[in-house]
């Protein structure tokens, strides 16, 4: 079988920008579909006749569905041509988004959101490997960074724009708009992406992949990092209220968004040669940012600086962790990616759950809990010098 990392399209010497944009937009759509309800909860709650807390579970169930379905669906579709998998997944997301917009029943909406998460579970595990196989030798890291850049950009721009669109004609308009975007992306993917072959389903068993040196360290660091992020990010509005900055929430999130996008540019330019330095810097800078939020939140200017640094550290973290997993696992990368996505999605749900428990006790606790997790992540990343994040990566 052709090595996952070193199999660019024959004869290609430059990055296939058009194809990578299709992968980028697919990742953008996955995060947008997951987080879109977060900015529209009061309106959706009124339509469904449920509390805001109950309505918020339509975000959680999406993340849980992605976590549960990523590995089995990756194995089920492993032999399918890659573009076929992506198109089926995008089709599921388009249909469920459109039906969500017309649903007025809470149970039906939860089912639709679960199915949408299942669709996304077929998207994320394939983006990094697909991009790497399309790229010329020596530029796979940059291709992965581009393909996965949709995640921070959706967090930075997609959710606020979706909320803004919803303000014009109800939350349903935002879901219709996202459906239209998915359909346009399906057309783009059909025209621009080569249909690369799948992988033999029995070639790499899950248990053997988990034993590959470095992967478990990567999974531990990823989980600690992402849970830490979601503990604070999910409840950032409550944290800003706690420190007397609720009126500046929009600007604080804007600062996070701008530096998240900047992170994509910085990491994309250097990931092929400096993966280890970038992942260490990302973890350490994030930890310092949370420490500042924990002890100096009474100074608004420092809150802005800390959140901006957090965005810079976090923005391309999916590219760094998935890139590390792909390099560490070689020909088993297609299996490793589904494992990484499972941990990634589960961390989103777990971070939100833990954060909710902490906020009920004392909002200030979310920063300290996040800091403890980031210290653990930093120890794992810095210590994973031999296999997980070697200098040569």
TrEMBL record:
One of its GO terms (molecular function) is transmembrane transporter activity. It comes from the Bacteria. Its main location: membrane. It is a multi-pass membrane protein. It holds the Pfam family MFS_1. The keyword Membrane applies. It is found in: Cell membrane. The chain crosses the membrane at residues 20-40, 52-73, 85-104, 110-132, 144-167, 173-193, 214-236, 248-271, 278-296, 302-326, 338-359, 365-384. Residues 15-387 form the Major facilitator superfamily (MFS) profile domain. CDD domains: MFS_NepI_like. GO terms for cellular component: plasma membrane. PROSITE patterns: BH2, MFS. Gene3D superfamilies: MFS general substrate transporter like domains. Keywords: Cell membrane, Membrane, Transmembrane, Transmembrane helix. PANTHER family: CHLORAMPHENICOL EFFLUX PUMP RV0191, PURINE EFFLUX PUMP PBUE. Belongs to the Bcl-2 family. This is Predicted arabinose efflux permease, MFS family. It comes from Kibdelosporangium aridum.
